[in-house]
Amino acid sequence: MTTQNGLSRERAAPRQWLWRPSTVWHLVGPMIALIAIGVGAVWLYLPQAMQAAAIDAAYRSNIDVAEQIKITRGYYTQHVVAKATAAGTLNPSAIHAGDPGAIPLPATFVQDISNLLAQKATSLALVSPYPWPHRANRTMDAFQQRAWETFQQEPDRIISATEVQNGQRVLRVAISDRMTNEACVACHNADAYSPRHDWAIGDVRAVMEVRRVIEPYLAAADGRSRRIILAVACTALLVILLMTAIAMAVARSMRSKQDVDRHVLFLAHHDAMTGALNRSRFVSLLTDAIAHSKKAGRCADVALFYVDIDRFKEVNDRLGHAAGDQLITAVVTRLRDRLRDDDMIGRVGGDEFVIARIRDVDAADTVALAEAIVADMAKPFLLARHTLTVSASVGVRIGTGEVEDLMRAADVALYHAKNLGRSRAVLFSEDMQDELEARRHLEKTIRDTSRDCRFELHFQPLLSAGDRRLHGFEALLRLPDGRGGYIPPAQFIRVAEEIGMIGTIGAWALHHACMVAARWPDHLIIAVNLSPLQFASGQGGDASIVDIVAEALARSGLAPHRLELEVTESVLLESTEVVIGELNGLKALGTTLVLDDFGTGYSSLSYLWKLPFDRLKIDQSFVAALREESRPALQVVRTIMALSHALSMQVTAEGVETEEQARLLTELGCGQLQGYLFGRPSPEADLPGLVLADFEAGQAVARPRKAARPGLAVLA
Ligand code: C2E
Ligand code: MG
Ligand code: MG
Question: Within a domain: residue 587?
C-alpha cells in the first residue's frame, strides 16, 4: 500500500473490511475467553458443590436412619413389650442383661442398638438431661445440649453439624424424640423409675442423634468433581481448537475471495501493466475530487497534464513490444517519483498519460512541474536490455469544471506542444479556445451522428493492375458536417477513438459495408478499415473483433473471401499476443487481411513474417513520390515488392493519381491499384453505374474489333 499517485488513493477509496489473521482472533478470542471463564468457574465451584451435595445426601441418610430406629422401637414396643407385659410372661427392664425373665425397655432397646453401632461409620445416640436410672453416665455434649434447647421451643427442627472427630470429618444430625401416643404416655407416667409422671403426647423426652463419618462421601465427591472438570476442560479445549480451525478456514476462504474481488476491482479500475488508473476511473475519481473541493469551500481548480511519449511507436517497432512495455512502466515510475502522493495518474492510451494535481494548484508551480516532467522524460531510461532516450510532450490545463473538458483542453495544448516540435510543455491559453470549441463540437457531432445512425460510407474502387478491371471497393467512413459536406476521417477517427466511440462506429461501418457488398456481383470484394482500438483491450466492448466480423458476415450473407480487412501497423502497439490471436481468428473466418499504409513510420519487419497478412498496401506517400520520379521512392517501392513477394503477399498501391504512376507500379509487380486516377470515394448510389461501366469495359475487351475502353478510368 505504499504506492502513490492515485494508486494508493484508489486502493484506499473503497476501503472494505478485510479478513486478516487478527480478524480470526477478534472473533475467536472472546469465545476462548468465555470458555476459559466457564472452565475456571467449574474448577472453582464444582468441588464445593459436589461436597455440599455429598453432605446433603449424608444428612438425609442420617434422618432416615433416625426415623427407621424410631419405627423399629415403635414396632418393638407394640408387638413385643406390650404383648409380653399383657401376658405377664416377660418383664421389660432397663437391666435385662442377666435376667432370663426380662426383656429391654423400648428406650433400653434403642440404647442397646446404639451401643452395638458405637464403632461403626454410622452410629446412634439417644440422650436426655433427665436423670433416667441406669443412664447417669450419659451426659450431653455441646451439640446435643444445643439440640435439646432448640427442641424445647421447636420440636420439629432438625439440628446438624459437621465436626472432626478422631481425625475424621463427621456429620451429626439430631431430631427430637417425643411421646408419640397414649399408651406411651400412660406407660411412662406409671413407671416408678420415670423422671417425670406428667408426660403428655408430644413432650420431648430425648435427643436422637445419628452420627456419620462422611470422609468417604467427600472423597467420592472430590473424585467425581475432578473427572467432571477434566471432561469439561477437554471438551472446552476441543471446542476452542475446532472453533479456531473453522474460523481460520472461513477467514482464509473469505480472504482469498476478497483478494480475488479486490484484484478484479483493481483491474477494472487500473491499467494492469503500470497500475495507473484507467481512463474511466481517472475521470470519476477526479470528478469526485473536484466536487469534494467545491463542497468543502476550497478552490476547485485542478492542474491537468496530458503527457505523450514522442515517437513511442518507433521504440516498439525497433526494439520490440517487450522493450516498449518496459519503457511505459519506467515512464510511469518516473512520473510517480515526480508527483505528490495526492496527485492522480492515469493511462489513457498506449503512450498517453494524464496527471491531475488537485490541491494547492498554482500556475507557476504547474508550469514548473510540466517542465520537470519534460526534463525527466528526456533522461535516459535503463531498460532490461537497452538504454533508451526518448522525449515527451505535455499539454496542461488549469481550471475546474467537467473533467472531460479539462482533458480535452489539455489535449489541445498537447497538440500545440507536438506541433511546436515536441519535447516541451504547453499551457492551454485562451487563443486555443476556438480549437477547443471546435474539438468539443466535433465530439458532439460524432456522438449525435452515431446515435442517429447518420454516418455514411463512401466507396473507392480497387482495380486489378493487369487488366484494370474492378476488383472491389474500399469502404471509407464519412461524417456529414450538416452543411452538405463531410468532415474528413483524418480529423474525426482519432477523436472517435479518444472518446471511446470507434468500437460502435467501426462495427456499424463493417455491418453496413457487408450489407452493401452482398448485393454486388460475386467477384467484387469489399475492403473495410479497422481501428487498432477495435482489437484486444480496445473499444470493441465485450464482443471481440472476431465475433463482430463473424456477425456482420452472417447477417449480410457475404462470403468471407469477399471481405478484406485493412489494419495499420499500429494495431501491434499493445498486447501483441492477443492481437495476433485475433488476426488469426479473422483469418480463420476466411477473410483477407491487408496491412494498410505500409511503409509509414518504422515498418516492423521483425513482425511481418509472423503476422497472417495476405496483402500489403503501399502508403500513398511513396506513390506520390513516384510522381516526382524520385529514385529513392522507386527503390523503396521496389524493395517492398521484393519483400512482399518473398513473404508471398500481394501488393496494392493507394493514391495512384497519374497514368505514369500506374504504369510504373504495374511494371514493379503491384497487383492492385487504387487512387483518384480510377475513381474517388463515391456514395453508394453511384456504385451500380461504376459496376456497369466495368462490366461494359470487360465486354469491350471480349469484342476486340470494337473500340477498347480503358477500364474505369474513363468513368472517374
Ligand atoms: P486509408 O485506409 O489509407 O484510405 C485511403 C485514403 O486515401 C482515403 O482517405 C482516400 O480517400 C484517400 N485517397 C485514395 N486515393 C487517393 C489519391 O489518389 N490521392 C489522394 N490524395 N488521396 C487518395 P479518407 O477517405 O480521407 O480516409 C482517410 C483514412 O481514414 C483512411 O486511410 C483510414 O485510415 C481512415 N478510415 C476511413 N474509413 C475508416 C473506417 O471505416 N474505419 C477506420 N477505422 N478508419 C477509417
Ligand atoms: Mg484503408
Ligand atoms: Mg491507406
Answer: yes
